[in-house]
């Protein structure tokens, strides 16, 4: 399944862009080592994390705080309510061109589509009309549940996953209502994400029950997936 890019463009084009309006550059820092610090007044003690790493941690914590503060202004929505809304979409399917769903139509009409078109290699928002739509489905559910600011919205699975990670709402536990990201090859790198959906239930046997858009023959379906294909989980802010 495609990773939800409109065309193939160099990675440097979209990795350099601001992800979902969050200007968090999670960069690795090279630590010079003990020899370089010898007799250098004002340097951090040997073994201390680089300043860049400390700044990164503070930035992510600040983003998490903002996200959770935003949740205080939103309707109180539970994971169960989101799953019920997602379940009501089961059976909706794309047309023979891979489009025609309300999820794609909604995304094309959103401000977010204007922000992501160039990143995704398109020339206009209309290029999303027949694009893979599993991330649009997740985003649509968040919007219509009234919690888009804490669910995120995107058409590209990798960027959506990074948004959760950049807000420190990312992990490895399959909680009901969590947004689950898959790599069909079993990789754990966010860049390898192929698909996204919602966790409905942890089955306790190495599988999870999910609700996903653009799966099977281009439909919204309930599926059972092995956790070995899961890259990670994004956690929207729910009440209760």
UniProtKB/TrEMBL annotation:
Signal peptide: 1-32
UniProt keyword terms in alphabetical order: Signal
Gene3D superfamilies according to UniProt: endopeptidase domain like (from Nostoc punctiforme)
Keyword Membrane: no
Peptidase C51 domain: residues covered: 109-235
InterPro entries reported for this sequence: CHAP_dom, Papain-like_cys_pep_sf
Protein's UniProt name: Peptidase C51 domain-containing protein
KW Signal (keyword) present: yes
């Amino acid at each position: 399944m495609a990773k939800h890019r409109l065309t193939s463009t160099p990675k440097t084009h979209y990795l350099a862009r601001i992800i979902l309006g969050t200007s968090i550059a999670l960069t690795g820092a090279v630590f010079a080592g003990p020899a370089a610090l010898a007799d250098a007044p004002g340097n951090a003690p040997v073994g201390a994390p680089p300043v860049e790493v400390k700044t990164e941690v503070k930035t992510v914590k600040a983003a998490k705080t903002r996200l959770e503060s935003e949740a205080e202004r939103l309707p109180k929505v539970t994971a169960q309510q989101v799953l019920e809304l997602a379940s009501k979409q089961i059976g909706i399917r794309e047309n023979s061109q891979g489009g025609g769903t309300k999820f794609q139509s909604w995304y094309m009409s959103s401000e977010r589509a204007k922000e992501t078109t160039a990143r995704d290699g398109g020339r206009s928002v209309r290029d999303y009309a027949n694009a893979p739509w599993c991330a649009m489905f997740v985003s649509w559910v968040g919007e219509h549940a009234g919690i888009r600011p804490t669910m995120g919205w995107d058409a590209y699975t990798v960027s959506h996953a990074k948004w959760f990670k950049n807000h420190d709402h990312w992990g490895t536990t399959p909680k009901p209502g969590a947004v689950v990201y898959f790599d069909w090859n079993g990789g754990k790198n966010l860049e390898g994400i192929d698909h996204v959906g919602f966790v409905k239930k942890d089955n306790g046997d190495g599988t999870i029950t999910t609700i996903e858009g653009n799966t099977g023959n281009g439909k919204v379906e309930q599926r059972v997936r092995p956790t070995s294909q899961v890259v990670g989980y994004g956690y929207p802010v729910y009440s209760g």
